[in-house]
Queue: 3 jobs
Job 1
Amino acid sequence: MVKILLYSFEKYDKLTQNPSTELAKLLVNSSNKKINIKHVILRPTFDSWPNLLKQINAFKPSLVIGNKF
């Protein structure tokens, strides 16, 4: 199983076409493997990166895709 962790900051999450989400859709549609996707929404604060690292360590993804502000 392939695990993908998507992260975006709040301002990107409000977009109608989030680049991370669109890329994940392409991966799921073009793959015949089982794919587990987790989406993490971050606030643009100083402690967002340590929180993201905790999420990555807990989920243990094969691929991490994200948007920076």
Note: The chain has three helices and three strands.
Job 2
Amino acid sequence: MFDGFFVRKVRRAFEQMGVSLQLVVVPWRRALHMVEAGDAQGYFPAYRGAQRDAEGQVFVQLDDDGWNWFLLRESPLDPLADSFKKSAKVAGIRGGAMQKWLQDNGYNMSKCPAAVGELVEMLVVGRFDAILDSRHTVQDILRRRGLEKKVRVVQMKTSPWGCIFQRNLFTGIRTS
């Protein structure tokens, strides 16, 4: 059974509601397409956006986390410095919002893996200088693998994280 910070939060929430849940763990981009095609009822983690609201999707907040840079503890780089964008080799989850943001904003991108665990391992072995991801997700992986002392975190921005569901899943339920 797949385990992770957000998986545990989602399972716990559905258990508390007394609703049975079938989780299928797939790469983030595939989950998005499965929901769009009607093959799944939701995906996570995600953040709220105008496009999702316009498409009639429901955002259910799980955590107030944000976008965070992770670097090796001994790295002299400062992700908030102007020079970082061009000098540091960075990565995010392939197909995710952070990878798109890094590309759109001209960062020196490395080849991005599809899973956070791979992203963390690649950072630790020096494949890139920094990764951009959710603090809770990465810190959970670092803690489980005994790597928390090797990495430092720099917050870039706060942003609530949650689940995106198709609105018809909540027919008759208030979702404000």
Note: The beta strands are 42-46, 57-64, 67-72, 89-91, 108-109, 130-134, 151-157, 160-166.
Job 3
Amino acid sequence: MQGTRANFQGRFGRDTFERLIERYVKEFVVCPICKRPDTKIVKERRFLFLICEACGAKSSVRPV
């Protein structure tokens, strides 16, 4: 991930690419609590957190 973009390298079939996008959205976009996409990723020290602007939830995310 670079800034606000995700980069996928390689050749992917349509099904594989759709699965990659779904996984990316689930891990880095959608709030695990309220399921809304109103989130942002914030770095605190060396940890990344997904902050939901809709419900206020704060969840850790794995480094990309």
Note: The CA atoms of residues 26 and 35 lie 9 Å apart.
